[in-house]
Design a protein that fits this description.
Elements lengths: L1 H13 L2 H19 L5 H30 L5 H24 L6 H21 L6 H19 L3 H44 L4 H44 L5 H32 L7 E4 H18 L3 E5 L4 E4 L1 H17 L5 E8 L3 E8 L33 H12 L3 E6 L3 E9 L27 E5 L3 H13 L3 E5 L2 H9 L6 E5 L8 H12 L6 E5 L4 H8 L5 E3 L6 H8 L4
Parallel strand pairs: 2-4, 8-9, 8-10, 10-11, 11-12
Antiparallel strand pairs: 1-3, 4-5, 5-7, 6-7
Helix pairs in contact: 1-3, 1-7, 2-3, 2-5, 3-4, 4-6, 5-6, 5-7, 5-9, 6-7, 7-8, 8-9, 8-13, 9-12, 9-16, 10-11, 11-12, 14-15
Length: 583
């Protein structure tokens, strides 16, 4: 069993090679582009040429090892090679930190640091299949640049180095957890396979096997929630730091670099947000806001959003609808249809896509037709499972995470709309959503009720904000950005520190707290302790959480306090401050 698990882990790593090589080579091009005018061009080209040679040899090794992997024919020398590769790859990027070190250009130096952070963040996942592979890559990548920063004997550079090293330690812990989770998952998988082979004819044993499968799925969900939370912390810090840099960067080059950093951060946010959407729907905290919707304009806007993408693929995107109204939540309905349309565009290599409407006496059926690859009958149910992509065995990140159809099905179930599928392999598919026609009156005939927004009085200038978070990197980043906006910031990492601030009669205008704190305490506990000891009640407060566990989200939402999710989008922190009228 041990050899089988070992072989499978190496096989999973091999499947990442195409992505790893593409990511490294594209990242190298990005680095060259940013440093083209500041580093000798010959030096840049030699570095990139050597890296091309390395990944070429890596690709050849991957090609010749395929047969051995699938035959489970590993030998000890082969295993050692897989630890040499991350050392060499890390040496290239660590060498880049030394060769392209530009202390005279702060903007380029910041970009180089963030570039290395992005590399180790991605490698923490892709190299988690081997116990020491990520450790070797991370150290050879980060240590050279960190030493150069420390040797500058400047506090600013020292803190840059410390932040980079601290980020590496976080990623080391995450990669270690991923390694153990992958090993445990493979162990469960192979044990289950063995049990199924031995106990196919025994009903009682099949029932036991089903229970084990359910437990494995629960373990996967808990692991996903934990991994997502751990990833959100550094990404949340990065988002806050880019907001803080906004006012510090004045050159065009620096602004361009900052724009690229924000773009990368938005991509990471989009991936994690899909996971959060699943968790919100499972937690039951999404409540539809039903109103009378004109369906044709809604569909027209969604089709226009995908027209350019379809045309680039050479696809004809057609639109055929009639005027009608439905009673629904426009945001949720748009999200569900958008995911179906996105799926059609991704998996239609040629031909056309049609968004059409069939109007009946009391209901309307919205249909998305495509001439794509089609879906086999055996797969028509499982395509709605999370992380399943039938047309993406290589797990190309450009095709998403495999959550779109799962999210659509959950949303439509919440709205009460049946979703059906008809498909023919190599000819195409049609997804159909059946909705009842509207029974609500025209908006002009409806009685409008507007609730008052319960905002706290304007607190005025010189505000003090208490920030509570048990992650020091997040705490420092939040304090940095709030200070840059002119606020006085008090920080605490646990209930005891909150108690000290309250006893000292510190004047606090707003509390911003992480939901999950140390020693099984929460941000709600921290707010209550501060109010009891300070004598001030109803202090404006909001929660921030990186949890995607449905139970945790449900629990945090039940207190009636504004709840934000890590990582915060650009400007989201300012929006919540405006809500409390302190910005």
């Amino acid at each position: 069993m041990k050899e089988k698990i070992e072989n499978e882990r190496f096989l999973l790593l091999q499947r990442q090679i195409s992505f790893l090589s593409s990511a490294n080579l594209l990242a190298g091009l990005g680095l060259i582009a940013m440093l083209w005018d500041i580093i000798p061009q010959k030096q840049l080209l030699i570095w990139y040429g050597l890296m091309l040679l390395f990944w070429g040899l890596r690709g050849l090794h991957h090609f010749f090892q395929k047969t051995h992997l699938y035959q489970a024919a590993f030998t000890e020398p082969n295993i050692k090679v897989y630890y040499i590769f991350p050392i060499i790859s890390g040496a290239f990027w660590g060498g880049a930190g030394v060769l392209f070190y530009t202390p005279e250009s702060t903007a380029h130096l910041v970009y180089l640091i963030m570039f290395q952070f992005g590399l180790i963040a991605g490698a923490a996942i892709t190299l988690a299949y081997l116990r020491w592979a990520f450790v070797l890559f991370a150290f050879t990548t980060v240590i050279p640049l960190s030493l150069l920063l420390i040797l500058e004997r400047d506090w600013h550079y020292f803190w840059m180095a410390l932040t980079l090293l601290f980020s590496m330690l976080i990623m080391l812990g995450l990669s270690r957890n991923l390694y153990h989770s992958i090993t445990d998952s493979l162990l469960i998988r192979f044990k289950n396979e063995s049990l199924v082979e031995k106990l196919q004819s025994q009903a009682l044993e099949l029932k036991a096997q089903k229970e084990k499968a359910v437990k494995a799925n629960e373990d996967k969900s808990r692991f996903l929630a934990s991994a997502s939370h751990d990833l959100r912390q550094p990404i949340h810090s990065l988002s806050l730091l880019t907001d803080a840099l906004d006012s510090q960067v004045s050159t065009e080059t620096g602004k361009s670099i900052l724009k690229l950093v924000r773009s990368a951060n938005r991509s990471l946010y989009g991936l994690l947000n899909s996971l959060l959407d699943i968790s919100k729907l499972d937690a039951g905290i999404v409540k539809p806001e039903i109103e009378r919707i004109a369906l044709a304009p809604l569909l027209h806007q969604l089709v226009d959003n995908y027209r350019t993408i379809a045309e680039k693929k050479g696809l004809q995107l057609r639109f055929k609808v009639r005027d009608c109204y439905v009673d629904s939540d426009s945001t949720l309905l748009s999200s569900a249809i958008m995911n179906l349309l996105d799926n059609a565009v991704k998996y239609t290599p040629k031909g056309s896509i049609l968004v059409a409407m069939r109007l009946y006496k009391k209901q309307v059926k919205v249909q998305i037709w495509d001439t794509g690859i089609g879906i086999e009958e055996d797969n028509r149910e499982i395509i709605f499972d999370e992380f399943l992509q039938l047309g993406n065995p290589e797990r190309d990140s450009e095709k998403g995470l495999g959550l779109g159809l799962s999210i659509s099905k959950r949303i439509l179930r919440l709205l009460g709309y049946p979703l059906s599928l008809c498909s023919t392999v190599n000819k195409g598919s049609v997804f159909s959503i059946t909705m009842p026609l509207s029974v609500l009156p025209e908006k002009s005939q409806q009685t409008q009720h507007y609730g008052s927004v319960n905002l706290h009085p304007c607190i005025g200038s010189g505000q003090t904000i208490l920030v509570i978070d048990d992650n020091q990197a997040v705490l420092d980043a939040t304090k940095l950005v709030l200070n840059s906006w002119g606020y006085t910031v008090k920080t605490a990492t646990c209930i005891e520190e909150v108690r000290t601030i309250a006893i000292n009669n510190e004047v606090i205008d707003l509390i911003a707290t992480d939901y999950r704190l140390r020693e099984n305490t929460t941000g709600i506990d921290a707010i209550k302790v501060f109010e009891q000891l300070s004598g001030h009640v109803d202090i404006p407060a909001f929660l921030i959480t990186g949890d995607t566990d449905p139970d945790k989200i449900q629990e945090a939402s039940s207190f009636g306090i504004p709840l934000l999710h890590k990582p915060l989008k650009q400007g989201e922190l300012k929006m919540i401050l405006r809500h409390f009228q302190i910005i």
